[in-house]
Amino acid sequence: MKIAVLGGGSWATALIKILSEKAVSIKWWMRDTEAIEKIKKFKHNPDYLSSVELNLKKVKPSPDLEEVIRDSDWVIAAIPAAFLALALEKLPKDFFKNKKIVSGVKGLIPDSNLLVTDYFNKHYGVPKSDLLAIAGPCHAEEIALEKHSFLTIACEDLENADTFARQLQCRFVNASCIADLDGAEYAAILKNIVALACGISHGLGSGDNFQAVLVSNAMIEIEEFLSQKTPLKRQINRSGYLGDLLVTCYSQFSRNRTFGKMIGKGYSVKTAQIELKMIAEGYYATKGMFEIYKNMNVEMPILAFVHEVLYENKPLKQSFELLKHKLV
Amino acid sequence: MKIAVLGGGSWATALIKILSEKAVSIKWWMRDTEAIEKIKKFKHNPDYLSSVELNLKKVKPSPDLEEVIRDSDWVIAAIPAAFLALALEKLPKDFFKNKKIVSGVKGLIPDSNLLVTDYFNKHYGVPKSDLLAIAGPCHAEEIALEKHSFLTIACEDLENADTFARQLQCRFVNASCIADLDGAEYAAILKNIVALACGISHGLGSGDNFQAVLVSNAMIEIEEFLSQKTPLKRQINRSGYLGDLLVTCYSQFSRNRTFGKMIGKGYSVKTAQIELKMIAEGYYATKGMFEIYKNMNVEMPILAFVHEVLYENKPLKQSFELLKHKLV
User: Fold this and answer.
1) A277 in the Ramachandran plot: left (φ > 0), alpha (ψ -120 to 50) or beta?
2) Mind listing the pLDDT tens digit for each residue in A82-125?
């Protein structure tokens, strides 16, 4: 199997570690040429999961995007959604022909609000059956430690899902398959927004009792959204949906939760951004998902609350009190 | 409203704090006469939630069980299931006539494996419509801190549920109602077993990724059990079910989780019991629930795993590996 991995962050590094357990050839694209030199020299990604020793017999880092993709049958995109279109913009329209594309991204394409796999479908003509997504529950940090983890591979063509899942299955990873591509992607985006809400409520002084209320109501919200947006019989409490939400919301390290907590404590978005040196994925996701939600007939009080707080300049405590009345 | 609260532990103390927000008369029975004297003198329960100041104008502690119950219209039982029958055994069979009984207990009556409300129904002839149960998600410790919490009141008669819910509703508690009495009680019992499983897996070295898999699969298991044992249209992800499971499984203070963790690290049940000076509720619940489960046709791999580990003397790691293959 010839695989391209695009992106140099934690999740890309974790996927490379997992894939290296099998006999594969992995070309690894990242923009940062300095990191590539360090990886070649020290067999470690200097910036992310630096404890992971990389097997350079199987993994070839390269700054040449075209070459990396051209030589591969499977392309795993692990670049933040905000920068994905920009990173790929110079590639010809037919460049992904006959390739399988796997999204490891949790976010919408800006402006168009497209799912990542829909972007490959609409922009590069990749058929839906050749598009896949990876869902958690999976902290990259625990992959580095080889803690046993479950991944869920979503693809409308379950044979393709199975082929890829077998590539991930190893002594510390269990991979299973679902046909719910769009559902898996939307759920993964929504979980970051819920993590923001958990952070905000924590910043406002709420405790674990209330976080449990938020997370359980979020599952109701996610299920209702999915059943309207992409109807399908799905087991919403399997690990790929509920489990993925849980690791994100209960992690002390979640950037979305930390960002939300600062907002809850009264920081402005700008100040939180400067302080944390980044904007959490959920911040952009909130805008995109709210635009999708506005055109639907579904109740999403948690999404609406986070949008009010981040984009509508509503008084925080008042919005929070109103939210409480909508939860069960 | 004249209320009796039976039991002197954390949960009883938390309920008394909540109920004292309203204009009520509360008689509080506990066995420990020394604690009663201290409460009367210092307005604090010396052993549990001792930071809570008790309003003795509304709350009257007493060691006289018969008097406490006789003078009340509503009786809240907050005694561990293992000791409940023993505590009440001297009362005449018609003693609870025309009273509403609220279970704040999470466990089965030993030997008979009856739900607590079923015990009052079968043993004292209290009609099902006068029996209620309180579900979380609610750490008593956060009630002491007045952290905003949600409670769910279950009763087949929703008017009774609503009457009691309005009694609990206050500036830091939101109480809502469901008609699913048996379901709420079974779910509350099963959550302690899941917390044991989380502790065991943690003791064996698993991390947050795997805990998320366990908890999400537990929800599938609980829903399947309930839909067979007590069929009803229920929203399984509302806070009274999913949220209650979450606070229990994600609490560092859960006795079930701590007990499970010691088992996972290789302690025997006896050693864990000596070390922790108690046996977790989930230990007894596992035995009772497994006996119920054996006579049903439902897949409950997590319950079966915990039972294997605690009661069947199976090799721990081997059982754990087998469990992993049954999760999704």
Assistant:
1) left
2) 999 999 999 999 999 999 999 999 999 999 999 999 999 999 99
